Amino acid sequence: MKRLVPFALLLTAPASAELIGTCQFDRDRLSFAGTPLDQARCLLRKVLPLGVKADQPLPPVIVHLMSDAAPPTPAHKAAAIAALPQPYRSFAIEHANDPVSQTEAGLPLLYFVIHDTSSPFLDDAPFPSNLDTNRQINDFTPYMNGTFAAEPVAHIFLSRGGQIWAGHDFAEGWRATKLESYVIGPASRGRFVHIETMQPRRLIDGYDDRGHTYGPTPGFSDAQYRQLAALYVYVSARAGRWLIPAQHATIDDLIPDAHDDPQNFELERFAAELEKLLVA
Fold first, then answer.
1. Cis geometry, peptide bond prior to residue 87 (ω within 30 degrees of 0)
2. What angle do CA 209, 114, 157 make, to 5 degrees?
3. Most buried of 54, 183, 189, 232 (most Cβ within 10 A)?
């Protein structure tokens, strides 16, 4: 969903500081302000309808990963791979020891960005009762055949049933936010990986435009939380560091025409799945 914001709000610090948005992305350092823990607190604020953000506490496991955790181990990587579904698991095994992306200036991959597809758009029709198995809701085809874009818009597409289709491997620098595409440009490619979770939208009562829509509750299925956690641990292990988890809407906060996803993302449920993998 798109939300118009005056361009004057884009910079939250003097222009000479080149700090962009609420979480203060530095154009030169290609990172947000503060420690990894500070950044996670800002980038994991709850995303409410119409793109409103609300502070929320970070679960202990995420605090640990962002502050004093040792780097991911081979056992973590193996546990993550074992949790991935086929056929993507075979692909993950094939690339398990490959490097991940870096920017053209050599800065390493740093952010794991969670999106929702905000599609299919149901207009004013109700959400199907079988969201997690509904073929229309979980069809990968529109993301593969150029319906949405000439090339896949994210690294990973994740259905509500927990199936995965890879648009790009994590070794490929890509862009899927306005910050990367329109504000920073190609220099930011390689700093972010992007996970699109399938979630439909319908109109808010009384509105008839795509700028006023909402997602189902619950927003994510159990299988999506499990696979998000497995993907996070897997790509972090390939990177050799715990990536900073983030959301599309908080990455682009205050950028004009920014999106409002992921909707109804429950951070505690994601954290619970991470804890299961990290006992390895």
1. yes
2. 85
3. 232
Query: pLDDT tens digit string along 183-192?
Result: 999 999 999 9
Percent of the chain surpassing pLDDT 70: 94
216 in Cβ contact with 131 (< 8 Å): yes
CB atoms within 10 A of CB 163: 17
Paired sense of beta strands 111-116 and 46-47, if any: unpaired
The predicted pLDDT at position 280 comes to 66
Q: Which two tokens stand for residue 200?
A: 């439909």
CB atoms within 10 A of CB 130: 11
**What is the total residue count of the chain?**
280
**Nearest CA among 245, 266, 253, 257 for reference residue 64:** 245
The rounded distance, in Å, linking the Cα atoms of 28 and 242 is: 22
